[in-house]
User: Fold this.
Amino acid sequence: MPPQRATLLQVAQRAGVSRSTASFVLTGRYKDMRISEDARQRVLRAAQELDYRPNLMARSLRTKVTKTVALISDTIASDQYAGRMIHGSLAAAVARGHLLFIGETEGDPVVEEKLISDFLDRQVDAFLYASMFTRPIRVPKQLRDRKVVLLNCLNRGSFPVIIPDELSAGRDAARTLLEAGHRTGIYLVGHVPDQVFAGRERLAGINEALGAAEARLAGTIDCDWWPGSAYDAVSRALADGLVPKALICLNDRVALGAYQALREAGVDIPGEVSVISFDDSELAAWLRPQLTSISLPHYELGWQAIETLLGDSTEPAVQRLPMPVRRRASIGPPRGE
Amino acid sequence: MPPQRATLLQVAQRAGVSRSTASFVLTGRYKDMRISEDARQRVLRAAQELDYRPNLMARSLRTKVTKTVALISDTIASDQYAGRMIHGSLAAAVARGHLLFIGETEGDPVVEEKLISDFLDRQVDAFLYASMFTRPIRVPKQLRDRKVVLLNCLNRGSFPVIIPDELSAGRDAARTLLEAGHRTGIYLVGHVPDQVFAGRERLAGINEALGAAEARLAGTIDCDWWPGSAYDAVSRALADGLVPKALICLNDRVALGAYQALREAGVDIPGEVSVISFDDSELAAWLRPQLTSISLPHYELGWQAIETLLGDSTEPAVQRLPMPVRRRASIGPPRGE
Assistant:
């Protein structure tokens, strides 16, 4: 049974002052009101002894300001990615003296509506609307007149948007191979459906950078973005006589499947085939040889979203955050050269 | 600039009724007060048109009941585990008509205190206090008189606790090998410091089950619970002439490193060495051969914690949830038999 809250009146009585005096002290207005230091100390001590908790909502109703931000997300963790995004947001919020509430909807519009309503009823007035993978979204009706920043999702409206720079990442993947001497036998591994932002942008960047060096992709080994599917597709391609010199895997899980297929076929990495990937998840450093992979800057996405939401930002409406190349040991010169 | 909230008075005016009538309708007391159906409908329509939002806190202050649970966690995502735990809690909360707020502290006691204070100030009155890996904790002072369930953490007090049954998991790991015919050459891979609950309990269960079959561990290949460390330790052991018949890896990441070492030494799994593991993370199904691993029931932990918190639970104070064995392809009979 929770203890009854101590009231302002009880604090005042314990301190031997009037209720209004206690109120002035506890709201920091004692200087204006010429309250003695002795009275002030008695009030503070009484409040502490009674574990007096000011009704935050009452104060908020007067000032209409809260120091809490809510992050609404479709899913908290498909893997560790979401966690890093939230860590970035949390760190930035704490650095600015705000708290972060997290609400997860699992994509359920009913839960989303209730969650947002509940946050609004609790006087939360700044929101991050987040998605675990970059995709277009519709901002919920309840948030349209509110202070909102879109974190890792896209919208045709005028809300500030923080996304990863997938186009540059694609260019960098291609350039890393070009710098190692590759020009031919470069295959994309994965699948690029039109609706997936990351895949589409990465492929556009790859094609652009290869084209600028008068090179091009030799083809695509089509598979889902999962190890089992990549293993099957690459195994089949190798068995059919394909002789790749480099593989651009659309994420580390695809690279894992590709590694397994190459290994089973007795093909050495990077001696015979170079492999580059995207995401730079934990898996990249665990594979042997360690995988060169292009980082998704989840922590920075989360951080920058809060900075944009709470700061006096003069940033452009759409901020594309850089995706650094994590160079490891999976790239070498083309075989036979 | 957020729109000003519509007030109860504005709703009443729009509906052409008194403020008190509007209040009775919107709090469901219209039957008591003999308000006409026509008046009721006008009030409801006015409230909808004005997007009237009752001050939830005002109502809560009268009833002292909220339908929101807060989950306080040290960290949201070391990997996908935390996500599954939260999914379980979320699903159970929604099934019971509650919302779930999540607050992450990253183990910072200052953030934790502020977060809890803020939740208490917002009339949240039921809490899950969670840890991402099973460990003893001290319940924060602010929560000691509140409704709290400990999720994946331990405490000497009287709070309900939901943890995984690591002791049984250890027994099951050993029994799975015994059933396949193993008695000798069984090595533990990992590290069991006294303070780590999972390691300690698993080892106790392993020793108990092997002992009951008059068998025992041949030794421990000591390493950190990470692939690189496991790879180094197992490689070294094999080079030193160790001939294991089975490896009990303390988690899937350790198993990955062990697989890499075995493969490099030309040792076949499961033909020459059987491997069993714990966690049943995504990695277990991605390895080749697919890894038999004992599942950490994160979703169920999260679900059961909410059920215990919100239900009329007659469960014991400490609930140990079963850890199912996910049988895959990494175990065979001992070599040479």
